[in-house]
Amino acid sequence: MSTQPQSGHGNPHQPAGYQPPPKQGMSTGLKVALGCGIPTVLGLILIGGCGLLFTKAASDAGKELDKNHDSAAVAPDGAARGGGSSKVDEPDITEDVKITSCKVKAGEYGIKELDLKIEYINSGDRRFNYLAEGEITVNGEKKSDIVSTGQNLAPGQKYTDDNAGALAFDVAKSAKSGDKIECKLIKVSRNSY
Question: Over the stretch 154-193, which tens digit does the pLDDT of each residue have?
């Protein structure tokens, strides 16, 4: 017995009303992997890229800050220790700062005071703030610290801190006529704008 072909959905061999089975799609696991995996990978790439950019920016900022700061220690003989200047063709910054006066004198109303003057000369190529640190000794024994600043000095500009000894009034007050008073710079730092 033979069956007569009936017209179906474009196939003469399929019975009328026949619905073909749905096409097999992706599995659920594959859908989850693609749906979650691709955004996750893109997110990790984005986070990694941002991290690299941040690291590069921080490194560049650090290098720029290093260009704006110098620091040098002063050896006991007055010479710079550790190179003095970290930049090529730039003068030793310890030569920018020197003590021009360190003695006890009679101030106003006959009160003894320490006449400590520190002179700054900016040998750099841009404006700098200077910080000078040191010590005051009496007969070889440390009695006080020196902290002095020279602010906003243009290239070649000179400034003298006439009141650098203001905090050492106790040294002057207790000084005797035979005492040997010395003022020494220990460290000089400068920062540019």
Answer: 999 999 999 988 888 888 889 888 899 999 999 999 988 6
User: Can you tell me the distance from the alpha carbon of 154 to that of 166, in angstroms, rounded to the nearest whole number?
Assistant: 26
Return phi, psi of residue 111, to 5°.
-80, 135
Contacts of 34 (CB under 8 A, 6+ apart): 26
Q: What is the DSSP letter of 4?
A: P
First to last CA, the chain: 104
Tokens coding 150: 């020279």
Which tokens sit at 32? Answer: 């989850």
Place of tokens 């990978």: 41
Q: What is the pTM of this model?
A: 0.59
CA–CA dist 54, 49 (Å, integer)? 9
Interacting residues of 190 by C-beta distance below 8 A, sequence separation 6+: 69, 70, 71, 93, 96, 124, 128, 129, 130, 131
- Which of 152, 137, 92, 95 minimizes the C-alpha distance to 119? 95
Q: How far apart are CA 102 and CA 118, in angstroms?
A: 9
Backbone φ and ψ for 92, nearest 5 degrees, come out as: -65, 125
Torsion on CA atoms 162, 167, 148, 112, rounded to nearest 10: 30
